[in-house]
Amino acid sequence: MSKQSLTESLLADSQIADLYQQATRSSFLRLGGQGRLPRETLSEWLSQDRLYAQAYVRFIGGLVSRVKLPVDVDANDTSAALQWRILTMLEACLAGIMRELRFFEEAATRYGLDLMAVGSNQRTFGPNEITRGYIDLFDSFTTQPREGSPRALFDGLVVLWATEKAYLTAWSYATQFSSRSMDFEKDLDGGALRREFIPNWTSQDFQEFVNEIQDCVDAYAENQTGEDNTDARLVTAAAIVKTVFILEKEFWPATAADGGV
Length: 261
Description:
Elements: H1 6-12, H2 14-23, H3 27-34, H4 39-64, H5 78-111, H6 129-139, H7 153-175, H8 192-201, H9 204-223, H10 230-251
Pfam families: TENA_THI-4 (PF03070)
GO biological process, one term: thiamine metabolic process
Protein name: Thiaminase-2/PQQC domain-containing protein
């Protein structure tokens, strides 16, 4: 039997598996897949996701600053090759989030969505409590790393994987409730989710992107085996993933369905 990778071990943990399911199966996603999500609720989520995306830009910059490119040229240095692979992956992350920020603005214009929508628990526009939790997590990686820095590249890669893995799974869940025979024009959001957002976040390209992040995390963990205690690294990764999945669960706005309506 082959040894489990780091990410396989994490998702096999019963507590993490339970949080993962809660984070990726909200009523928001179900109603969105059915075309029954009101435009106002979608605006509330999208306005927060845009703030999340802006913080994600800084987060990726912080991870780039932690990549250690080789000084010497050695074609047989697998560690150096992995650092280059991670840097390339992070470059794709940055390009992708920049496209997404533009996508948000374009879609908001097309479908009459409010990118400064205020949630039911807010008085003025800005990050709500959960979005602030994400921003603080992302920004903890933006400080220039120094010797003994508590925020290592490994930690950041695990955060990155957990967020993107949950995102892909969540929108894939929403597709289960959608049908091509349903008329987009009758959707409560004007078709924004089913016509554009859901296909964007469940595309083959996005799936391959998430798989590459996962492969980089697993390869980096394997490459570091001799430098750190494997069990300690798994404990650290598990704590990070739990934090992300708890935030992700609460990131989806409540809907009428949550009240049993």
